[in-house]
């Protein structure tokens, strides 16, 4: 979506959000951790939380870079 906008395109409107669906952006979380002065250990801990869906990531799914591409892993 961002690539299309950066190329001057006007993408179609996105569907409405749905109540009860939680998402996260792993790359943004890791970059945020690093920009706040996180150490390598902090980044590794954040990776573990992301991979195990623990802490702030409980009951949420990856929005930008989903590892599993099958239907069961997509945000519903």
What keyword list fits this structure?
single chain, 76 residues, mainly alpha, two-stranded parallel sheet, 2 strands, 8% strand
Fold topology:
Blueprint: H1 2-6, E1 22-24, H2 26-35, H3 40-52, E2 60-62
Parallel strand pairs: 1-2
Helix pairs in contact: 2-3
Descriptive notes:
The radius of gyration is 15 Å and the shape is flat. The model has no long low-confidence stretch (mean pLDDT 85). It is mainly alpha-helical and 76 residues long. It contains three helices and two strands. The longest helix has 13 residues, at 40-52. It starts with a helix and ends in a 14-residue tail after the last strand.
Contiguous helical run count? 3
Q: Determine the fraction of residues in helical runs and give it as a percent range.
A: 25-40%
The total count of strands amounts to 2
Mean pLDDT: 85
Low-confidence stretches: none
**What's the arrangement of strands in the largest beta sheet?**
1-2
Alpha-beta content class: mainly alpha
Whole-number radius of gyration?
Answer: 15 Å
Q: How much of the sequence is in beta strands?
A: 5-15%
- Give the H and E element order: HEHHE
Give the distance, in angstroms, between the N- and C-terminal Cα atoms. Answer: 19 Å
Described by the principal axes of the CA atoms, the overall outline is flat
Main beta sheet? 2 strands, parallel
């Amino acid at each position: 979506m961002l690539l299309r906008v950066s190329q001057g395109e006007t993408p179609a409107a996105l569907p409405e959000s749905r109540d009860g669906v939680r998402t996260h952006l792993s790359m943004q979380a890791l970059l945020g951790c690093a920009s706040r002065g996180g150490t390598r250990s902090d980044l590794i801990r954040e990776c573990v939380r992301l991979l195990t869906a623990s802490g702030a990531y409980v009951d949420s799914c990856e929005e930008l870079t989903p590892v599993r591409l099958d239907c069961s892993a997509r945000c519903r």
